[in-house]
């Protein structure tokens, strides 16, 4: 058991998994060139995908065994749940019946590289941590888009129906403007009516791009600093709960082994003592009887 735990925590095990993921990515990339694919090569690739899936099943089994005597701790890690879900979905019959679903599941295995590198995990954790703050900024941006879209429709839909035909087209046009992709073409078209309409576009670019978009960046950077601080705190205190439990289990097992060895040693010493004394002589028995 201890050997499995050590292997699951070793760099060799991690490198093997990274190699399998990169191998899967290479196969998926090669399959995207239909001119190179032949029926015989496709069979070999299907076999390779099956072997990789079997290897991932073994990996999950090793990690679950390494969590003994509390195997459910494996599912406390979100990335482990993601890996296990991919395995279960790949084993379902529906994945074999629908080729597109099978390809998507294979492609999702490449995302496991995020779990293999702590730096990538840190970035993803930062994005997840930023979602609540981003949600409120998204509401603010939605209000901004709605106000400017309705205003733009009423101002320009007759002169420029291509970009301001209705509310949906107006929102798409504003999205084009906020990305700064050829937005001046839309502005010059509106300025044919009046040069003062440039204020509409300039104000939207300033508020939507230079203010709101930078709020997203500020939130991500702030949460990145917090995630880095939390990661450094973990490095300062590497003895996490799982490691402490594993140490306690190992220590308890060692104590039990020592107790058994001490008990066996006492029994052996008692037997040797009795053998040294030997059976009592008849003269000793008679003296003991008189006494």
TrEMBL record:
Q: What is this protein called?
A: Voltage-gated sodium channel
The subcellular location is: Membrane
- Keyword entries, A-Z: Calcium, Coiled coil, Glycoprotein, Ion channel, Ion transport, Membrane, Transmembrane, Transmembrane helix, Transport, Voltage-gated channel
Q: Which part of the chain is the Ion transport domain?
A: 11-228
List, alphabetically, the Gene3D superfamilies matched.
Answer: 1.10.287.70, Voltage-gated potassium channels. Chain C
Domain of life according to the entry? Bacteria
Biological processes per GO annotation: calcium ion import across plasma membrane
Q: Which residues form a coiled coil?
A: 241-275
Give the main location: membrane
Q: Which GO terms describe its cellular component?
A: voltage-gated calcium channel complex
InterPro entries (alphabetical): Ion_trans_dom (IPR005821), VDCC_alpha-1_subunit (IPR050599), Volt_channel_dom_sf (IPR027359)
> Where do transmembrane segments lie in this chain?
12-30, 50-66, 78-101, 134-155, 196-224
What one GO molecular function would you report for this record?
high voltage-gated calcium channel activity
Q: Name the Pfam families for this protein.
A: Ion_trans
- Entry membrane topology: Multi-pass membrane protein
């Amino acid at each position: 058991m201890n050997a499995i735990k050590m292997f699951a925590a070793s760099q060799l095990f991690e490198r093997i998994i990274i190699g399998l993921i990169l191998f899967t990515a290479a196969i998926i990339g090669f399959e995207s060139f239909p001119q190179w694919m032949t029926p015989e090569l496709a069979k070999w690739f299907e076999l390779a995908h099956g072997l990789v899936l079997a290897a991932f099943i073994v990996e999950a089994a090793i990690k679950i065994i390494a969590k003994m005597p509390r195997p459910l701790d494996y599912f406390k890690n979100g990335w482990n749940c993601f890996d296990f879900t991919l395995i279960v979905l790949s084993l379902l019959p529906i994945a074999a019946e629908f080729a597109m679903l099978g390809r998507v599941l294979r492609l999702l295995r490449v995302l496991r590289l995020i779990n293999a590198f702590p730096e990538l995990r840190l970035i993803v954790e930062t994005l997840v941590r930023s979602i609540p703050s981003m949600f409120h900024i998204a509401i603010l941006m939605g209000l901004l888009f709605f106000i400017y879209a309705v205003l733009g429709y009423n101002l320009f839909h007759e002169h420029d129906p291509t970009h301001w035909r209705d509310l949906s087209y107006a929102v798409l046009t504003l999205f084009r403007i906020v990305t700064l992709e050829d937005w001046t073409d839309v502005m010059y078209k509106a300025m044919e009516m009046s040069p003062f309409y440039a204020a509409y576009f300039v104000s939207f670019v300033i508020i939507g791009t230079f203010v709101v978009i930078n709020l997203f960046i500020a939130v991500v950077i702030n949460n990145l600093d917090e995630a880095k601080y939390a990661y450094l705190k973990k490095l300062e205190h590497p003895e996490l709960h799982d490691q402490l439990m594993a140490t306690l289990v190992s220590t308890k097992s060692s104590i039990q082994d020592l107790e058994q060895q001490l008990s066996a040693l006492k029994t052996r010493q008692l037997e040797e003592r009795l053998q040294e004394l030997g059976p009592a002589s008849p003269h000793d028995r008679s003296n003991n009887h008189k006494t």
